[in-house]
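Hi V.,

You were right to ask for the full record rather than a summary. Here it is.
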Amino acid sequence: MSEWLTYNSLIVLQGVTLLGACSGVIGCFAVLRRRSLVGDALAHSSLPGVCLAFLLVGEKHFWAMLLGAFLAGLIGLGIMAALKRWTRIKEDASIAIILSTFFGAGVVLRSLIQQMPLSGRSGLDSFIFGQTAGMIEEDVHLITALSAGTLAIVALCYKEFKLVAFDPEFAQVQGWPARLLDFALMLLLLGAVVIGLPAVGILLMAAMLIIPAAAARFWTRRLAWMLLISAGIGMASGIVGTYLSATQGVATGPCIILVAAGLFLLSLGFAPKRGVIAQQLARRRDRFRLETPLGAGEEPAP
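Predicted structure:
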């Protein structure tokens, strides 16, 4: 344990911990708005942006590739909004179109890059599968700053985001800029996706957004507690997953997601009131009360 817990590992853990909190919080709004697959589409649509940034810079420049991922995701988000507003295509179909088209373009660009005599081209795989070990201190500081900024925005606009998440029509009637707030949530979702690419990767970033939020939903009905629990699950998944990745020599992204999936299963089974076991026990108690006759000499209540 002490051999693994070096200064560099602590720096990486700092970034991964904040990333887990950021993903968990933003994922709650995606789940409540029933837009779980939007995060997956944005993650996959970022691949061509990463590849184009690599071609323009000529090397694996962390900041440039994150910017390319953000711009590509922003274009994908804009196309999804346009298809939903100006065509008869439903949201799920537009998500599928963006996901497959952008990811296909990214795969083609990646194949072309692999054939070019460019240094660092193998580093693109870290954005696909995730690899925290390849990050340097400046990269982690950037991830930390972006994650902290995202959490600060959510804290400042909590009431507005809560209203839009549960009842956007009511928010519109009351004079709130519901569309603008909804777009702001999608931008924060895109930001969380881009932040998580170096750690979790394109293929699994959607799971990092959705699994902690889905697990937290079993523990509470209140949004504030849901955000806190989801953030805690995301942080725990990031810490444990990074440790397993470093000590076992496997990819970081899958480790983090598997830990999150394990916590989801625990929540599914053992959460009070809403877990499977608790619900089964409640059904048995109700059935027992219905089937048990009144005791001898006991009179029913008036």
